[in-house]
Amino acid sequence: MLIRERLESFDFSNSEKKITAYILEKKMSIKDMTTKEIAEATYTSPSTLVRIAHKMNFSGWSDLKEAFLKEEEYLQKHFRDINANLPFQNNDTIMSIASKIAALEKESIDDTLSLITHDDLQKAIQIIRKSSYISLFAVSNNLLITQEFQHNMSRIKKRVDICSLQGEIIFKASLADPSSCAIIVSYSGETEILNQTIQTLKGNKIPVIAITNIGDNTTARLADCVLRISTREKLYSKIATFSTDSAIVYLLDVLYSCIFALDYDTNLQLRINTSKMIESARFSTLDIIKEEEHVSNPRDKDGTS
Questions:
Q1: Based on C-alpha coordinates, what's the Rg of the chain?
Q2: CA distance linking residue 99 with residue 96, whole number of Å
Q3: How far is CA 270 from CA 157, 265, 276, 277, in A?
């Protein structure tokens, strides 16, 4: 749940509600305001702001204010000209639809990039680097789009196990080796079977990396490392999961690339040599996609040099 949603729905006292209503109305305008100034504007007291923070499990008003402003800054960035849930309308032309879907997917990637922090990404990379293999857990369409990550990682000899049977997820987690790690992909952060899976993994002392939304959710609280993705789509009221899918694929591509880069030259040579051997029969008449040793010189076609 977002901080703004918690401010709207929490059972505050009347004086506290005056402050939360003021904060939700002013948003970024409270950035340079002191507790005294907010209290005076709402005819309350500075101590009331501290009580609100404590009720929302923040150590104090400064921490709540900082988190609220960070969230608002994120929500005001990107997606100004496109709706993640309804990116096109019934009167759009086919080329208009094509353009809008391209814009949506680019926006989702930029949005997710803005949420990546160096420390969180570094922590995830080190967890994966030290692990003997990765167990990846997701459900529904999220499960489908993780398979490319599994494929890429296998090409650099990094094993990724994906449990495709939802009823077997917890069983699979209970058998995971302590030397492994796990990645949980959950947009809502409240998928019960995935959170039960995390608890099982944690019981076996297996580090968990969560890919989830920007809010305070169960998956994020249970995980050892959290990577946030673009959070713009509703759970149901949408044409498709265009934005979420693009964000998840991008973040998994980033993880793969960072692991690849840990031993760049070896991994690159491994991929090239393996592909050469396995895909030797692949051929194209198009020079732009041919491998260098097979590209012809255009001047050779008429016998000139």
A1: 24
A2: 5
A3: 9, 8, 10, 11
Q: Under a CB-based contact definition with an 8 Å cutoff, are residues 35 and 61 in contact?
A: yes
Full-model pTM: 0.81
**C-beta neighbour count of 55 within 10 angstroms:** 15
Do residue 122 and residue 163 come from a single domain? Answer: yes
Helices 14-26 and 35-42 meet at what angle, rounded to 10? 110
Written as one string, the DSSP assignment of 254-278 is HHHHHHHHHTHHHHHHHHHHHHHHH
Domain residue limits at 209: 96-262
- Whether residue 227 is found in the same domain as residue 241: yes
CB 115 within 8 A of CB 229: yes
Q: Are residues 62 and 125 in the same domain?
A: no
- pLDDT tens profile 215-237: 889 999 999 999 999 998 888 89
Query: Taking a C-beta distance cutoff of 8 angstroms, is the pair 226, 220 a contact?
Result: yes
